[in-house]
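Sample 3 of the quickstart, ligand adenosine monophosphate:
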Amino acid sequence: MKLYNTLTRNKEEFKPIGKEVGIYSCGPTVYNFPHVGNLRAFLFADLLKRCLLFKGFKIKHVMNVTDIDDKLIKKSEGDKEKLKEITIKYERAFKKNLEELNIIPADFYPRATESIKEMVEIVKKLLERGYAYKTSDGIYYSVKKFKDYGKLAGINLDNLKEGARVNNDEYDKESAKDFALWKFWQEEDGNIFWETEIGKGRPGWHIECSAMSSKYLGEHFDIHTGGIDLLFPHHTNELAQSEAANGKKFVNYWLHNEHLMINGEKMSKSLGNFYVLSDLVNKGFSLNAIRYLLISTHYRQKLNLTDETLKASEEAVKRILEFIANAKNREDNEKIISLIKETKKAIEKAIDDDLNIALVLSSIFKFIREANKLGAGKKAYELVIKTNEILGLSLEKEKIEIPEEVSQLVEEREKARKNKDWKKSDDLREEIKKLGFILDDAKDGVRVRKI
Ligand code: AMP
Ligand code: ZN
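Result:
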């Protein structure tokens, strides 16, 4: 199985370190409801997991919850109680979204505020090893001390200004600067601080992921995921912190998803061009269709969210659900059996090529088209169900139920057709249509579709 590694800018054969694949994903900042751009990042991690599981790997997945940063302190006006109220509210909303989109839960969702001890340990190590220094307002990482600084994002240190430092969590994406590991308490922080060996204060943003990843996955693990916007400075700084503190390689494969776009711009809170999940549901789109759209474009390509792409996804999902609803409990003929083999191979090959989901989808739709013609049975049904382990559509929530009344009318119509009673057959078709279903006559019988 090949995965595109941002670190080497190559598709590389995936080889896990141990028996379980360790995956760390940068999770949400629980400052607001996640927008569907954020959800694309979480769905990408889910797709990766589903493909690894499909291939038989075991997984240990950690996703952090950022429940402290500059914006959150501002929003909670320096009040720890209020901070907790806000972050719990949005953490719940985030987890509800994961459930709604049928995302396999991570094994651990550690919160930054509950991992302060581990962060302090890393800062201490960095001070001891000469990678960090103290100023009046905090403890900073000295980027020029780390030989490979910027290798992940291809950032050049030539323009590094002596003594250029940043204290805020978000900063300009062009140049490298020393960044805060620990920020000493200041008045605006109110009662939000921790009394620690390295001083009274709170962590910088990046240190939390160095601490929480090694806490659960060890100092060296397999895969790190996140949106492409995190490449610099966040992941660059995470890597610099962890490798400098531990003196060993941090992550083998760095995987980044491209952005969800809207009208040609990145969907983001700051641009105000975002939808949350319930906005799309209120527009009448199903959760399956939303999920489908967000995974159906290769994760390293930008994806545009429009009503048209959502509608097309709705249709695609319907085709899969209809195939399942019409599946017949019978043996498959030889032609189908060989088509199943061919399709299975094509799907595995697609996954192995850096999770080529577009190819998975075109293979399964081609299969459904052909199988409808050839007369599908149990094994054809099983192939679609198995493929859905990758797609992750909820087959239960939006299951197409064919009512008993409709099934009976279909049977009656089949009889009429056998007796060449075309008038009765047409009347029955009309009656079925009134109940909201269309019939497709095929060689092997009839299939029912919802209008
Ligand atoms: P945040 O809650 O802002 O920390 O972001 C959570 C995740 O969403 C991160 O992995 C981001 O890189 C990712 N992300 C943010 N905006 C987008 C977007 N428009 N498309 C895809 N991923 C995004
Ligand atoms: Zn992170």
